[in-house]
Amino acid sequence: MSEKRILLASLLKPINDTRLYEKLGLSLSKISGVSIHITGYEAPIPAEAPANMHFHPIFRFSRLSAGRIAAQRAHYRLLQHIQPHMVIVSTHELLLPTLLYKARYSNVRIVYDIQENYSLNLRAQHNYSWPLKHLLALSIRTIEKMTAGSIDHFLLAERSYAEELPFLGDRYTFIENKYKAHQELSALATPVSLPTTGTLRLLYSGTIAEEYGVWEAIESAKQLQAIRPASKLTIIGYCANSDTLAKLRQACLALPFVELIGGDKLVPHRDILQQIEKSHIGLLPYRPNASTFRCIPTKLYEYMAHGLPIMIQENPLWQGIVAGNDAGRAVDFRRINIETLYHELSTTNFYKHGIPNAIYWESEEEKLLQIIIPLLSQVQEK
Predict the structure, then answer these.
(1) What local confidence, expressed as pLDDT, does residue 266 receive?
(2) Quick one: 354 exposed, middle or buried, by C-beta within 10 A (0-12, 13-18, 19+)?
(3) What is the C-alpha to C-alpha distance for residues 46 and 49, in angstroms, rounded to an integer?
(4) Are 22 and 180 spatial neighbours (Cβ–Cβ below 8 Å)?
(5) At 140, which CATH number?
(6) Does 308 share its domain with 230?
(7) Are 18 and 48 in contact (CB under 8 A)?
(8) How do residues 30-59 score in pLDDT, each as one tens digit?
(9) Do residues 168 and 24 share a domain?
(10) Which parts of 140-280 are beta strand (E)?
(11) Which range marks the domain in which residue 324 is found?
(12) Could you tell me if 107 and 245 lie in one domain?
């Protein structure tokens, strides 16, 4: 085989994931003489993928099961089969089998794509019992520290990780989750204002969880009903917590103006984008939490790219982005005055200076290629 092979690997993300495939994968597929392999959780293979891109949907298991251990073995076998020259790992659990492969086949470069501060997320959120979440957090940080010296470069999805993660050294580059369009967007008519008649469509998209404010989104929609009865809230995304999902389904049955799309299964990203295009207000009612406080939600870039007015939880980082681009309002969803807020939103023009260029993926693609191409040139063809 004459081409150089890059494997992008994630244990929990689907093979058609926005960052794994649409951003990193498609950007790297532009490198001459390279074949791209993507392994991840089982999902439909993108029909429009370029010819030099190959998919290996080898993972399918519940989040807490022995299947996660078997998945690491499957990953190692795939490494031996593909024999990549570079592996970009997006899940901490795949670090050890990847470095075992590197020990056997030294002619390889390893890049760790850090999409989340996994250890902090476990400690700050409430998805597991106190002893279990701290044990898991400790094990993750131990693996990351043990393997850090053998990793050639780190990609950081958030700028805050440079301060939060003590094992990075100076081998990192910020590759943020900015918006990657499926096709060239037609110029949006700006400024944007809310419709004065008809249904007012609110949107909550992405990960469905209490920490991300799903109940605050529903409460806001309930209050808005008293002011503008022709209002509707769409909740679209995946909910990993079965108790939260059961309660959410019960809530939707009692509230006909709340629609749930997905819930127990991953929702194709294009379906989410279609809902963004149909909506009038995007909700980001994140509860204040150490795991999200210094991170920029990907959906913020998505909403802005489509000219969607935004209601976002008060946060100095987010407020600067939203206010600086006339994109919406920062509010405290715990003490919201919906009547005052609705009057302000309905009399305001948003995006008065157009959609900002800084939110798009192209700038991140350029940085990515500047890192990966030199690293790849250091290894010989197998």
Answers:
(1) 84
(2) middle
(3) 6
(4) yes
(5) 3.40.50.2000
(6) yes
(7) no
(8) 999 999 999 998 888 998 999 999 999 877
(9) yes
(10) 153-156, 172-174, 200-205, 231-238, 258-263
(11) 200-359
(12) no
